[in-house]
Amino acid sequence: AQSVTQLGSHVSVSEGALVLLRCNYSSSVPPYLFWYVQYPNQGLQLLLKYTSAATLVKGINGFEAEFKKSETSFHLTKPSAHMSDAAEYFCAVSNQAGTALIFGKGTTLSVSS
Amino acid sequence: DTEVTQTPKHLVMGMTNKKSLKCEQHMGHRAMYWYKQKAKKPPELMFVYSYEKLSINESVPSRFSPECPNSSLLNLHLHALQPEDSALYLCASSQDSGVGQYFGAGTRLSVL
Question: Residues B65-74: pLDDT tens digits?
Answer without folding.
Answer: 999 999 899 9
